[in-house]
Amino acid sequence: MKTAELRQKDVAGLQAEVKALQKAHFNLRMQKATQQLSNLATLRSTRRAIARAKTILAEKQAAK
């Protein structure tokens, strides 16, 4: 998800997005551990997406 799309969400929406991304990242890590994951770049992209969402969430919470 792009930064502009994340900035349009409210705090509750961002928290839900972070939770969904963390769950997806966990599933990818489990696939890697069982050697079912073929594209390891998805781990990096989900990790960065989590960081991006958390950063915007912190900005919104600090603005309040």
TrEMBL record:
InterPro entries: Ribosomal_uL29, Ribosomal_uL29_CS, Ribosomal_uL29_sf. GO terms for cellular component: ribonucleoprotein complex; ribosome. It comes from the Bacteria. The keyword Ribonucleoprotein applies. The keyword Ribosomal protein applies. One of its GO terms (biological process) is translation. GO terms for molecular function: structural constituent of ribosome. Pfam families: Ribosomal_L29. Keywords: Ribonucleoprotein, Ribosomal protein. Belongs to the universal ribosomal protein uL29 family. This is Large ribosomal subunit protein uL29.
